[in-house]
Amino acid sequence: GNVPVQIFVVRDIEGQARLQCYNLGQETLHTLTVLPLRLADDESGWSALSPDGKLLALGAEGRHGGLWLIDLTQYAACPR
Question: In this structure, what are the phi and psi dihedrals at residue 74, rounded to the nearest 5 degrees?
């Protein structure tokens, strides 16, 4: 079958970090959620997708650093 392909993006929009999903097949960008992530210019973050595509691990260093596990199955905008 035709499996949808997504690109997950974490970026600042109006002062808040947001998780977005770009669906390549539909050529659409969806904002999924606001994230608790805050990065200064000299700090960095990273993410990793689980092999089954259901979970996204998001990490950040710095004053507001942490590690979050995001259940992507709760967002219908970017189906698996």
Answer: -85, -5
Q: Tell me the per-residue pLDDT of 10-58, one tens digit each, with 9 for 90 and over.
A: 888 888 889 999 988 888 899 999 988 877 777 778 899 999 889 999 9
User: Is the pTM here over 0.70, yes or no?
Assistant: yes
Full DSSP string of 33-56: EE-S----TT--EEEEE-TTSSEE
End-to-end alpha carbon distance in the chain: 12
CA nearest to 45, candidates 71, 78, 12: 12
Query: Considering only CA atoms, which of 58, 79, 52, 54 is closest in space to residue 10?
Result: 58
